[in-house]
Amino acid sequence: MAKKEKTAITIDDKKYLYEDLTQEQQTIVNHISDLQRKIQSSEFNLQQLSFGKDAFVKSLKNKLKQE
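^ that's the sequence the OP posted. Answer follows.
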């Protein structure tokens, strides 16, 4: 049977093995990971929203010029 490799994480330039952490420490790591994904998703959504807003402002300016 193949031996499963342990997951290494680095905090302040020190490596830790996820599987060797306590349950509480693993939960904290999971929260950090989930929050990072949410931050990245929020930044992506903000970029889309900003682009959309800019497109509507440009459209309005064009419509106002047509008057």
